Amino acid sequence: MTPDNLFLIFNNGVLLGWLLLVLAPGWEWTQRIVHSFGIPLLVAAAYGFSILAGSGEADENASFFSLAGVMLFFASPWSALAGWLHYLVFDLFVGAWEVRDARRRGIPHLAVVVCLVFTLMLGPIGLGLYALVRIFRGRVFGLEETAEVA
Length: 150
Hints:
Radius of gyration: 18 Å
Number of helices: 6
Number of domains: 1
Largest sheet: none
Oligomer: single chain
């Protein structure tokens, strides 16, 4: 299995999760597929495999203490794949949380769909938009999990 093959499998595979979040957020299979640890565990396994497959390929000057040093971590296809898998799993996790949180708080799904599109494409911006929807809709600034809607 090459990094390119794994990229295509996972990059396209998580789109199913996003489609379920957008089109069928309350469906039983959305709950089973997206709101479980199934996808994160699969991506975690591929992530770990990518890290191991790329071990030893990182430049000796790679480091977490400068942008140039971080860029050197992604010089090999395996490490770039690992970085992309990192984005894929965390963005989907955030999108699933947005849907669950909105349902608990009575926020209309249509308002969340816009946030989901941005979370998929530009993760932090989508989360920021959802935070604004949540603040203006429910006057909730914190990240507490209890619903404010009766």
